[in-house]
Fold this sequence. Notes:
The complex is a heterodimer. By secondary structure, chain A is mostly helical. Helix content of chain A is 76%, strand content 2%. A two-stranded antiparallel ribbon of chain A has the order 1-2. Chain B has helices spanning 9-39, 52-59, 61-93, 99-111, 114-125, 130-138, 152-176, 180-188, 193-221, 225-230, 237-246, 253-284.
Amino acid sequence: VRTLTRAYGQGLWEGRAVLAYTILLSLTLFIVAPFLMIALRSVGKGWFGKLWLPPQLTLEWYRWAIEVGNIPEVLQNTVVIGVIAVAISTVIGLFTGWAFGRRRLPGKELVLALFLLPLMIPSITYALGVARIFYALGLVDTHFGVALAHVAVCAPYAIMVLSATFEGLDERVLEAASVCGAGPVRRFFHAGADLSRGRRRLLGDHQRDGCPHGRAVAPHPCAGPAACAARAAGRRLQGGVTWRTR
Amino acid sequence: LFRSQSLTPVFVTGAMLLPAAAAFLGLFCYPMLLTVVLSLRPEGADAGWTLSHYLAFLGDADSRGVVLLTFGLALAATLASIAVSVPIALALRRRLPGHRLFRLVVLIPLVVPGLIGALGLLIFWGPRGWFNLFLTQAVPVFSRGLSVTYTLPGLVLFYVWLYFPYTCVTTLAAIESLDPAIEEAAEVAGAGRWQLLRHVLLPLATPGILAGSVLTFMAAFGAFSVPLVAGGNYRPLAVEIYKQIVVPIPPHWSGASAIAVVMGAVQVGFLAIYMRAVRRLGGRR
């Protein structure tokens, strides 16, 4: 009887596992298949009609992208804008995060909520104003201008992530630094900033693949504030698992 | 302990907040104010006040349709995301072999730029994509393909692909944070799998799921690049604003600003109502 029960239980367990794997594999198909098709289309030729796979393989689309599509220049735009936006947001985030995380600040919650406000409002609302200002200042169509427009959306993430980091810094490290004779400035730059570097890298990744489109359209600085917010939230939740092991 | 002796602490804290304050005022507050002011100016003028842009936008049935479309799309995508996320979270919760890989798969749409996702979706679900190939060749009922791209359900599907991870991640977190003892107690009390799910797991996780789905809603409500590329004739608010600036010559800055203000107001209003409802739901349990 016991064997039978166990076999029955096992069968049930396996039934549930099969169901779970079915769900997870359909999910994977749903998410990954579009990328597979992009990849195949990019090396395929003459792929018409009712064919599952491209009949011929070619690299000519890549040559076209480099020669006609001007990929090197576009890529350069993306990188330059990304680096500038990340740099400015990181500086803002470092100082503000330190102030929020480590210093006594009356009305901290309110100030933080204010700084995170740009994430709650559709970015196109204030992007219109940004575009008007930048037209007047001649910043439109410059790398710096596009990067600066991204800062409005990126800085709140930097503040959010780095406040949490500095709040969680191990006091003992800073005490040790203080014992070793480091003043507040050196404590901030040498101990604090080093410890938060892992988080900053995380944030940099987010901003680089999240915010700057190579050729950002004038009135719209980003994929959307919510997209970024949730992206950051997702990263952070995921970060609890993967980043700690690093 | 770490307060500087030589400098006034308040002054230092204030100085540290300066860069953020500058960005906040210069890149958010002032532009926001400018947008509002612009929306109240006659088109192309730097002086005078008028409500005509709001009246024109809100008085036009097509424009009201755009607001409704944006809202409906976002709501449909949010509900569909919840429907998709709950089974996935339940499957992931069991930590079967390979569950870490699937957890990463869930996050793929978040880390890939939306435009690439939209391109892939257009190809995959298009008339010559694998989806329609499968339908016509493997399912006997469909002799002709199903048009998904550039239709309203198709757009909802794309939104779900792009934005469901927000809901999924929070749903998973909500379900995993439940005390296993509650589940065991229910099992001891004789609850079957379905009863456990229906009366214990889902009610307890609901506040977390709803709070997380707000992110999906916000992303879908503000969606721009995806409907621009894959929306066809369906143009939500963000695209409409963009068109107001790009299509007419000279651009309709004031009209666009009025739409943007309406959009901001709708989102903030909905968020306020939704969050209050979620909080009340969370407080009751």
